Amino acid sequence: LNDTNPRSLIVRLCDVLSSLRIHGVVFEDDARSDAVAQILDFLSAQTAVPIVAVNGGAAIVLTPKEKGSTFLQLGSSTEQQLQVIFEVLEEYDWTSFAVLTTFFPGYEAFVAYVEVLTDSSFIGWEHRGVLTLNLTDDPEGIRLRRQLRELSAQIRLLYCSREEAELIFSVAQQAGLAGPGYIWFVVGTTLGGSERLPEH
């Protein structure tokens, strides 16, 4: 399917579903629109055909789902996201970076995979350490602000939840660490969705 506008997508998928004996659909697209996910969710609910979304707009996290839908969304893994980020870092010759995480599930695997990527590369990466942020007992963000300022790297790889990212960027903005001269890459499988845009 080369055309993912709503009408074409619905017509083509309905044609395929009505003409072939299909037990399920695996869908991948290059669009970044969450409208694709809404269309697939609707089609799954109406046709009772399971649809698995693996990339693009189809995989942007959609809530709530249609009643009766068997629509499963699979976004890119943390490893895939990191591979792309390291390609960007290499392309721009940004070899010095620091890693920041919260205690969000998977943070240890994130740190381990960063080490795998840097240790197995011929690039002279300058890994300036890992900072694990504890946001639960710092409601005012005072310690967080101090920790972010003490970090000397201008390139920062951050692994956390969407809610934690909003708090971290709010504090980074107040500390003057989110403007020109600082580059943040946020990694995680729960960062998608455009129903509520963050302030920072």
Topology, element by element:
Blueprint: H1 6-19, E1 25-28, H2 35-47, E2 51-55, E3 71-73, H3 78-91, E4 96-101, H4 107-119, E5 126-132, H5 142-150, E6 155-159, H6 162-174, E7 183-187
Helix pairs in contact: 1-2, 3-4, 5-6
Subcellular location: Membrane
Protein name: NMDE4 protein
InterPro entries: ANF_lig-bd_rcpt, Peripla_BP_I
Helical run tally: 6
Q: Mind telling me the C-alpha Rg?
A: 20 Å
Q: Indicate the CATH class of the largest domain.
A: Alpha Beta
Using the alpha-carbon principal axes, give the shape: elongated
What is the average of the pLDDT values?
A: 82
Instruction: Walk across the major sheet and give the strand order.
Output: 5-4-6-7
Q: CATH homologous superfamily of the largest domain?
A: Response regulator
Low-confidence stretches: none
Largest sheet report: 4 strands, parallel
Measured as a percent range, the helix fraction is 25-40%
Count of discrete domains:
2
Based on secondary structure, the structural category is alpha/beta
| DSSP strand count | 7
Describe, in plain words, how this protein is organized in 3D.
This protein has 200 residues and is α/β, with parallel strands linked by helices. 38% of the residues lie in helices and 18% in strands. The strands form two sheets. A four-stranded parallel β-sheet has the order 5-4-6-7, with helices on one face. Helix 4 (107-119) links the parallel strand 4 (96-101) and strand 5 (126-132). The longest helix is centred in the N-terminal third of the chain and has 14 residues, at 6-19. It comes from Bucco capensis (collared puffbird). Keywords: Membrane, Transmembrane, Transmembrane helix.
